[in-house]
Amino acid sequence: MKILVADDSKTNLAIISTALEQLGHTVIATHSGEEAISEYEKNKPDLIILDVVMEGMSGFECASKIRAMNTEENWIPIIFLSASVDDQSISQGINAGGDDYLTKPFSQITLEAKIKAMQRIAEMKKKLLLTTEELKVLSSTDPLTGTYNRLQFEKSIKEKIATADRQNLTLGLLFIDLDHFKAINDTFGHNIGDLLIREVADRIKECVRIDDFIARIGGDEFVIMILDKDTAHTAEVVAKKILDKLAQPFTLENNTIRISSSIGLACYPYNGLTRDTLVQSADIAMYHAKELGRNNFQNYTNEMNQKYRRQVSLEQELRFALERSQLFIVYQPIYNLISKQIVGMEGLLRWKHNSFGIISPNIFIPIAEECGLIMQIGNWVLENVCQQGAKWNELGFDHFKLSVNLSAHQIHQNSFIDTLNSILIATKFSPRQLELELTEPSLVSFTNQLKTTITKLHDMGVNTTIDDFGTRYSSLSYLRSFPISSLKIDKEFLINIQHDVKNSIIVKSLISLAVNLNLNVIAEGIENDEQIQFLIINGCFLGQGYYLSKPISANDMTNLLMNESKSNINVIP
Q1: Angle at the Cα of 465 (from 460 to 467), degrees rounded to 5?
Q2: CB neighbours of residue 106 within 10 Å
Q3: Which of 270, 459, 557, 567 is the most buried (most CB within 10 A)?
Q4: Same domain, yes or no, for 183 and 279?
Q5: Which H, E and C letters describe 255-290, residue by residue?
Q6: What's the pTM value of the predicted model, to 2 decimals?
Q7: What is the pLDDT of residues 352-398, one digit of tens each?
């Protein structure tokens, strides 16, 4: 050990120095308290031995000053050297920062024992400090990604705001949320989900500077804090980098997964003067990015706040919509375009609120998905459509198929097949009359489990249709990999189809593709007879749209079916 000794007696200093050197220690010998403090600052010894009574500065004063210079990290044990020790001296020494006493004269054995005891105390103190530091790191770090955690974020954002005020900087806050992460977790399992989160964190780290703050604050949510003069510009640059990085495919245990993210940006002090308002602003901007189709970033605006408050209100109201009987189903007929006979119908969910009026599914379905209500609502729709289908069967109208839109959350649920089976048995509705419509985002996370689910539906007799084919993530692999029965051509391709060459080519190609793959093809959004004639000429014989019939209530649909049945009877010779 390196031991600092202070004693104004040359004889005593020589005796203790010699004894320490014989024990194998390095001695820094000083003759006064002032000299001891100076040498302490220069040499940082492992142990200090101070004579209590010295001219000028006493050992107690010297210890007190050294303790004032100490921190928890560089604590050093102090032993007082005294000719006699009483209770008052012990109390005074402890208060001054001492740890033990050595009485003069002392034996070599006593000296060695005292030093070993101090060594043990120092080592225990060191281990305690290391453990404390490790606990601090653990308490502030996300164990999965190595980034900071929510606790540290809430602490650091206050510090960052204070720093921004002191240094005349702005603080940029980025909220990052992975799109459809729950579906990936449900499909691939939590192990792959954790691997994905870890990879995402690593890619985010590549997009920021070393001083920027990153934290994982939820299952698939991250935040970044940036201090800068021109934070708004810097935050946008970072957001663009993150979107590009996360758009690149991930390969995890032989699974290729593509994801996207939605990012909200807010800036202190412009978008919030407190921690809570700034966080809320970034969160609102992130949800706005999701509403705009995901895979983008948005800067917070005051208009977003107003819209957000309405969204929160709608979410709360949606939680009571079922029990208040505000949700209902309308049915839009699907016609044979040549005979003009009904061959099927699509059940469409609607919400009529007492104050807000009719709310579009484009508004409330994403809310239901975000707040976890989609399974309950989706199962309610399936059950009610099957019940109504069974009633029409009892009336003799059993020649058509009933189609229902499925959420991606439903089709990726492990329990979906069992749930559907239970509904079909309870309602006594034939699975061969049921058609489930899947949007292309439902099929993006292609997995063996998803293929198994759709195959089981096919084996049950339930048909599956790809809705809005060609408008989003079109991939011919869906048609090759899944037992799909029908394609639906989106209404946007029918707009001005007689004169829009590109739309005309797209529709012809989709029809040809479906026919060659032995799939039914159904046109949506028909608005005029010219579109019907174009579709018939090019081989599409099924369609729906306001020109043929708007969505109507179940009672009105019953009357429509009865009138059609009477018309058919009348034309029989």
Answers
A1: 150
A2: 16
A3: 557
A4: yes
A5: EEECCCEEEEEEEECCCCCCHHHHHHHHHHHHHHHH
A6: 0.60
A7: 998 889 998 988 988 888 788 999 999 999 999 999 999 999 999 98
Phi, psi dihedral angles at 242 (to 5 degrees)? -65, -45
CB atoms within 10 A of CB 282: 28
Token pair recorded at residue 355: 């104050």
Gap between the Cα atoms of 481 and 448, Å rounded: 10
Which long-range CB contacts under 8 A does 133-142 form with residues at least 24 apart?
Answer: 142/201, 142/215, 142/216
Q: Which runs of E-coded beta strand occur in 64-141? A: 78-82, 100-103
Residue keyed to tokens 């599956």: 464
CA end-to-end distance (rounded Å), the chain: 117
165 lies in the same domain as 197: yes
Q: Could you report the per-residue pLDDT of 41-57, keeping only the tens digit for each?
A: 898 898 999 999 898 89
Q: Domain boundary residue among 73, 104, 138? A: 138
Q: How far apart are CA 48 and CA 28, in angstroms?
A: 9
Q: Same structural domain for residues 207 and 266?
A: yes
Peptide bond preceding 551: is omega within 30 degrees of 0, i.e. cis?
no
- Does any domain span residue 382? yes
Residues 131, 256: one domain?
no
Phi, psi dihedrals of residue 463, rounded to the nearest 5°? -85, 150
Cis peptide preceding 77, ω within 30 of 0: no
How far apart are alpha carbons 243 and 463 in whole angstroms? 36
**Residue 246: which domain range?**
150-300
| 436 beta partners | 404, 464
Hey, what are 519's tokens? 């799939």
